[in-house]
Amino acid sequence: MKRYLTAIFLIISAFILFFGLRIDLQWTGAVTWGLTFICLLLAAYFTKYIPDQKTKKK
Predict the structure, then answer these.
(1) Helices 28-45 and 5-20 sit at what angle, rounded to 10 degrees?
(2) Membrane-spanning residues where (predicted)?
(3) What residues make up the domain containing 29?
(4) Engineered SS bond to 20: which of 32, 52, 54, 56, CB 3.0-4.6 Å?
């Protein structure tokens, strides 16, 4: 399950940006970009669980 978290967080960040920037309220932009940044950091963190094809072949 951990190897799919990178893709899941990338999709979540896209949804947050799409819907968050459509809402025109005070501080919405800062909150949207902050949540997107956190999701992208988590996606980068979980890339270590993606299996490496080079090590599988050996």
Answers:
(1) 170
(2) 30-50
(3) 2-48
(4) 32
